[in-house]
C-alpha cells in the first residue's frame, strides 16, 4: 500500500482578515461591539470596509491557520474551502499555497464575495471583529462516487463532508482538523470537489 499523500486535510471557512488601527470614537460611531465578534451581511461589510483606515490583509480562518502551523512543522497539508473569483479570493489562495498547503478548490463565480473578517484595533489593543462569511458558505457537496472511493476508516469524515447529522459526525466536524487514517489513500482536494 502506498503512503498517504497528506498528513492532514482540513475543511473550513476561507477567510481573509482585514486589520486596521482605529480610535475608540470610530467604534462608537459605527455602533460596533468593542472587543467582540459580530457576523455581518454584504452591505454592512462594505460599509465597514469603507470606514476603515489603511489596512493589512492576512489570510485566516481557524482551519487554515491550524494547517499553516502544521505545515511549518513539516506536515503535508491540504485545505478544502471556498473563495470567490475576486481580489480577496486571490489573496487567500496565494497565501495558503505560499506556506506549502495544497488548495485546489476552484473559485466561485459571482456573488457573494470572498469571506472576510474586518478587524478594528483600538489603541488599547482590543480587536473588534466583524465577520462576513460570504462565499465560504457555498462549498459544493462531494459527489457520491467520490464518497464510495473513500477508505472505510474515513467514513465518519465523508459523512461530515456531506452534512449527515449524527452526533459522532458532528463532533468530528466541529474539530475542523481531520487526521488522515494510517494507510488511507485520499484523493486530492481537487479530485474531491470536481
Summarize the structure.
The protein is α/β, with parallel strands linked by helices and 194 residues long. It has helices spanning 24-30, 42-51, 62-72, 87-98, 144-149, 155-162, 167-174, 189-193, and strands at residues 8-11, 15-21, 37-39, 56-60, 77-80, 101-102, 115-121, 127-132, 177-179.
Q: Can you give a write-up of this model?
A:
By secondary structure, the protein is an alpha/beta fold. The chain has a single domain (8-193), classed as Ribokinase (UDP-N-acetylmuramoyl-L-alanine:D-glutamate ligase, 3-Layer(aba) Sandwich), CATH 3.40.1190.20. Helix content is 35%, strand content 21%. The chain has helices at residues 24-30, 42-51, 62-72, 87-98, 144-149, 155-162, 167-174, 189-193, and strands at residues 8-11, 15-21, 37-39, 56-60, 77-80, 101-102, 115-121, 127-132, 177-179. A five-stranded mixed beta sheet has the order 3-8-7-2-4. It has a four-stranded mixed beta sheet with strand order 6-5-1-9, with helices on both faces. Strand 7 (115-121) and strand 8 form a beta hairpin. Helix 6 packs across helix 7 (167-174). The two termini are 25 Å apart.
